[in-house]
UniProtKB/TrEMBL annotation:
The active site is at T25 (nucleophile). Keywords: Autocatalytic cleavage, Cytoplasm, Hydrolase, Protease, Proteasome, Threonine protease, Zymogen. The 20S proteasome core is composed of 14 alpha and 14 beta subunits that assemble into four stacked heptameric rings, resulting in a barrel-shaped structure. The two inner rings, each composed of seven catalytic beta subunits, are sandwiched by two outer rings, each composed of seven alpha subunits. The catalytic chamber with the active sites is on the inside of the barrel. Has a gated structure, the ends of the cylinder being occluded by the N-termini of the alpha-subunits. Is capped at one or both ends by the proteasome regulatory ATPase, PAN. It is found in: Cytoplasm. The gene is psmB. Belongs to the peptidase T1B family. GO terms for molecular function: threonine-type endopeptidase activity. GO terms for biological process: proteasomal protein catabolic process. Residues 1-22 are annotated as: Disordered. Component of the proteasome core, a large protease complex with broad specificity involved in protein degradation. InterPro entries: Ntn_hydrolases_N (IPR029055), Pept_T1A_Psome_bsu_arc (IPR019983), Pept_T1A_subB (IPR000243), Proteasome_bsu_CS (IPR016050), Proteasome_sua/b (IPR001353), Proteasome_suB-type (IPR023333). This is Proteasome subunit beta.
Length: 221
């Protein structure tokens, strides 16, 4: 059950379209065999102001799933917290984790109900393999092999389209994600200030790489 929001009546009175959502960022999700790579840059902007140079845009939802956010920071944080609570309750009641398809469906229902101004990427692994889902503020859910959101996504997509293959390894996917972000940060003024990179694998689950690991990958490009 989605928690009650006392301010939902006011929020429901406003329609939310993709054009209404501030998407000043670049986020990337890539499937690589049985694993997933999620990557974002770290700039948070308010108009022409760089509001933060260390913005966190990847949030762990379960041991094997995580969310990237572009759009409203508060809405993105609330979405991640809501999904985490609901996934934990599901596992407690059923004795097994929610599938990624089920988690994506729940995320779409939450977005549709709350009208969160955020455009997330949901990535994770389950018994059926690796999954990356693109979601929109209206609750739309689409599974993709790779996806990018935010103002720098047009640039990042050029790199992803050129470099993605069905047999991409985890290491290659990490390098591709970093390449995509670096290209976006070169041309999109709302993207910049470093890279956050996370992997989700069947053996380790969710893991966020540290700055030294990200720098090492960037130096190999």
């Amino acid at each position: 059950m989605i928690p009650n929001n006392p301010n939902q009546r006011e929020r429901n009175q406003a329609s939310v379209s993709n054009e209404d959502v501030a998407e000043g960022t670049t986020t990337i999700g890539i499937t690589a065999g049985d694993s997933v790579v999620l990557a974002t840059e770290q700039r948070a902007s308010m108009g022409n102001l760089v509001a933060s140079k260390t913005a966190k845009k990847i949030y762990q939802v379960t041991d094997d799933a995580a969310l990237t956010i572009s759009g409203g920071v508060g809405d993105g944080q609330n979405l991640a917290k809501t999904l985490k609570v609901e996934a934990n309750l599901y596992e407690m009641r059923r004795g097994k984790p929610m599938t990624m398809t089920g988690l994506a469906s729940m995320a779409g229902n939450v977005l549709r109900s709350y009208l969160f101004r955020v455009v997330p990427i949901l990535g994770g692994v389950d018994d059926e393999g690796a999954h990356v889902f693109s979601l929109d503020p209206a609750g739309g859910v689409m599974e993709e092999e790779y996806v990018s959101t935010g103002s720098g996504s047009v640039i990042a997509y050029g790199v992803l389209e050129d470099g993605y293959t069905d047999d991409l390894s985890l290491d290659e996917a990490q390098k591709l994600a970093v390449r995509g972000l670096e290209s976006a940060m070169e041309r999109d003024t709302a993207s910049g200030n470093g890279i956050l990179l996370s992997t989700i694998t069947p053996d380790e689950g969710f893991r966020q790489l540290d700055d030294e690991e990200v720098e090492s990958i960037a130096q190999e490009l």
